[in-house]
Amino acid sequence: MIRSAYTQLPPAFFFSRLTDAVSRYAENHPDRRLLRLGVGDVKGPLAPAVIEALHRAAEEQSRPETFHGYQPETGTDFLKAAVAAYYRQRNVTLSAGEIFISCGAADDLGAIGNLFSADARVLVTEPAYPAYADVSRMAGRPILHLAGNRENGFLPLPTADTDADLVFLCSPNNPTGAAYTRSQLRKWVDWANARQAVILFDAAYEAFIRDAEVPHSIYELPGAKACAIEISSLSKTAGFTGMRLGYTAVPEALVRDGCSLRDMWTRDRTTRTNGVSYMLQRAGEAALSPEGLRFSRERIADFQENGRILSETLRKAGVRFTGGRNAPYLWLPCPDGQSGWTFFDRLLEEAQIVVTPGEGFGEGGEGHVRLSCFGSREDTEEAAGRLLTFFKKRV
Ligand code: PLP
To answer: Domain residues for 229?
Structure first.
């Protein structure tokens, strides 16, 4: 009766083990200041334009003549227009029918698999955001792994032997901070079109990109509309982790087995959801307005400066790493071949710095840790000083 794949899932103990270890340490050492570079969450506040939009929308709901009930399941025209305008900045044209408003990237990453058969083979490029492999396991799909590693700069590319029906790509990447250049990503697009595979492109961190050769959207590449679904989020871009709003693009040109995936996804969404709240969509529209985007860019610049500070520190310490430039994460190997957990314990004990062990991100994550740039400037600067002392002591 039940879907047995759920009983075979690896236990989700990773984050509870992490939180428990940090709480235990904090309880036993109340006098020591912990610096948390493990966080994947952003700090507020939201943009004033977003707050004003929320107030206005709340006011509208207070009067029968301006009240809004059910909204279109795939999103309101005004928010789709704002998303389309955002894409146009990258010279990407998407119609309203190709844009789907969601409650965040996690929801759509979890649900997009509804479109594919249970035997569709899923390729996960790892280390990766753990949901890609987990949702595929839940659906009982065969999973293939392609390893990111030091040799390929944590940006694995398809080879003549790479064979799969679906592939999850995340660029800029969580956890490695690495980002595909246009020419690298083109190899994936060409591969998918040649194989009739579908790329599930997670663009949650596109707003952090600094280098011109790194595309913000996979649709900047010719041919991508025929092979890719792009899943995006306002979580990290506009501080919406607690608001819950994202958008997914399924282009009209994406057809498999003679079926339009755009039409199938429309059918799926209009059946399984009743859309996102009106107030939230007004907030999203404000986040994508010139004032909202200006505010977000300033917040992101703060995180980018944290990335620069941490990168500089690791360079001074002679530690090789990826990330910190086009993504709010840095990824480094643990010294002396230690596991991520051992190094996590050592940094906690010796420097009171919290990092995320790479073991939480699937194959190839072991023996690494992730540093986040979402901490405060004060914490980041202090952590940088402590990291330098820690690494210098070891030399
Ligand atoms: N994709 C990646 C790579 C992420 O790191 C996260 C959140 O950390 C998500 C998706 C989920 O984003 P959302 O908050 O929009 O559900």
So the answer is: 48-290
